[in-house]
Design brief:
Blueprint: E1 14-19, E2 22-27, H1 31-38, H2 49-59, E3 62-63, E4 67-71, E5 84-86, H3 92-100, E6 102-108, E7 114-120, E8 126-132, H4 141-148, E9 159-163, H5 168-176, E10 180-189
Parallel strand pairs: 8-9
Antiparallel strand pairs: 1-2, 1-10, 3-10, 4-9, 4-10, 5-6, 6-7, 7-8
Helix pairs in contact: 4-5
């Protein structure tokens, strides 16, 4: 299967995504090669370290982090946090979004202690990431950002987030805001 296209014409060398009882390997490799690699455990193996390493060698790209894949609840009727849209800057979260997404938009709180980044990523889906300054953590800002994010997506389209499971504060914030885990994914990069 061809590698998944990103909207601006760049290509991700590979993407592996899976959920309960299913997985998809999107990469320029033969389906028979994938089947042989995961024959011992066809449901779980595609997101395992052994397969991801083999796929990395095969496509010549490093796998990213194994992220929990979450989908947003419906947009809230009212926004419970004051945000202002700003030009994308040099924040590491924004730089990463600009590498992997198109149409990137950025919002921040008036005191600039929290950041929300929205853009279109894999297969054109809307994706969000949030960042709260360490001095402002523990006040519910991450949960408030995750809750408001669906209201910022044009035309009420579905919104996705990838959260590293080890980032327990972020994961708790998204879950508290009503986001639902639907799978896991690894995006390979150059």
């Amino acid at each position: 299967m061809p590698a998944p296209a990103l909207l601006d014409g760049r290509r991700a060398p590979a993407l592996v995504v899976g959920g309960t009882g299913w997985h998809v390997v999107a990469a320029d490799v033969a389906p028979a090669w994938v089947a042989a690699q995961v024959a011992h455990e066809p449901v779980e193996a595609p997101l395992g370290a052994r397969f991801l390493s083999s796929l990395a060698d095969r496509v010549g790209a490093e796998p990213g982090v194994l992220d929990a894949l979450l989908t947003a609840p419906p947009a809230p009727e009212r926004i419970g946090i004051l945000l202002g849209e700003v030009e994308p800057g040099e924040h590491p979260r924004v730089r990463r979004a600009l590498r992997h997404r198109t149409g990137v938009r950025v919002w921040t709180t008036p005191d600039r202690t929290a950041l929300l980044v929205l853009g279109q990523g894999v297969a054109g889906r809307w994706e969000v990431s949030v960042k709260v300054h360490p001095a402002a953590r523990g006040r519910g800002l991450g949960t408030a950002l995750a809750a408001v994010a669906p209201a910022l997506v044009p035309d009420g389209e579905p919104l996705w987030a990838q959260v590293a499971p080890a980032n327990t504060a972020s994961l708790r914030s998204f879950l508290a805001a009503g986001w639902r885990p639907v799978g896991a994914e690894v995006l390979f990069g150059p």
